[in-house]
Amino acid sequence: MTTQHIDGFVLTPGGFIRGVLEHDKGRIVRIDGSAVAEHEVRHGAQDLPLILPGFIDTHVHGGAGRDTMEGGDAAARLAQLHARHGTTSLLATTMTAPLDEIRQAMRALAPTCAERPAGGARVLGVHLEGPYINPGKLGAQPDFAKAASIDEIRALHALAPIRLITLAPELPGNLELVERLSEAGFRIQIGHTLGTYEDGVAALARGAGGFTHLFNAMTGLHHREPGMVGAALAHARYAEIIPDLLHVHPGAIRVALRSIPHLFCVTDSTAAAGMPDGEYRLGRHRVTKCLGGVRLPDGTLAGSTLTMDQALRNLVLKLGLPIEDASRRVSTNAADYLGLDDRGRLAPGAWADFVVMDRGLQLHSVVVEGEAIDLAHAG
Length: 379
Hints:
Layout (H helix, E strand, L loop, with lengths): L3 E9 L2 E10 L2 E9 L2 H6 L6 E4 L1 E6 L1 E2 L2 E2 L6 H10 L3 E7 L5 H16 L7 E8 L20 H10 L2 E6 L6 H10 L3 E4 L6 H10 L3 E2 L15 H9 L2 E4 L8 H10 L2 E4 L12 E5 L2 E6 L2 E3 L12 H11 L4 H15 L16 E4 L5 E6 L2 E2 L7
Parallel strand pairs: 1-4, 5-8, 8-9, 9-10, 10-11, 11-12, 13-14
Antiparallel strand pairs: 1-2, 2-3, 4-18, 6-7, 15-16, 16-17, 18-19, 19-20
GO molecular function, one term: metal ion binding
Protein name: N-acetylglucosamine-6-phosphate deacetylase
Cofactor: a divalent metal cation
């Protein structure tokens, strides 16, 4: 492969430059140009594209009609769908289920974690969302919550690499397990929880790193009972949030943006992402996509149809964030959270993961580890 280059407004860790990005053998080899202010990026030479870091999504249940729990080539197909929407790295996210079904899903995910599918995002590993959650706060999770065991988690990790675990710290034994798992190198998030503010603070002190889909499936903020949301807003450095403007009101997103310095966006996308309205699988559930959302028969929100390019547009065009800040929320912050210094940023030596967009933040091209993704069939 010969060195390739692209000209435009390139978002570097130091801000935008007007210049060139060169990449070769999957890595960025050179970025050169002169610094420009975001005002010039927004209103300057309209023929020059925006070149931003590829998106990183730590919470993906499905896409293109496929669900992570179904096995087979589902992970490869959803990785391809999300790549066509600018996601260059993701965590395949499981559902609460009987342990045998989780094992089966992990075995099926392993090959895609080991080798990036052609035309797809890099699957960095697994986000184990449950089954170690509070049965009283399942949200759209099936009712198979159970007590956690470090030996069980290690056995699952041997099947496919677990990068992130969601659990409820208030359950017996879980607080101690947070510390042991963190020491063992697992990233722990608090979620699907009926825990108190004090439970959240204690879990953070024991090594929990963040919160799963902030505001959703956790105890809310009250001025005399701050709840798990209060613990996040008062103490967290990192947390996920779903910016589809359906799961969380824009005003609540603004609160989180002001409170949590490294808040980052996830899609919590389901098999319905990139697909027409209809019925789809979500773990053991059947869910319906309609009116821009995905719901269980009783109306409970059940994941989303969001893609990360739309998440970026929502942050900039609906919430008014500067492009540079919004880009961090869909890319760099998640990379930092996962301890990845060669993804989520455009710099020499980093992976050549980037998106090319126009001023309306519509995708023109996506490059994953140096591979140009075919956007012709983007959903």
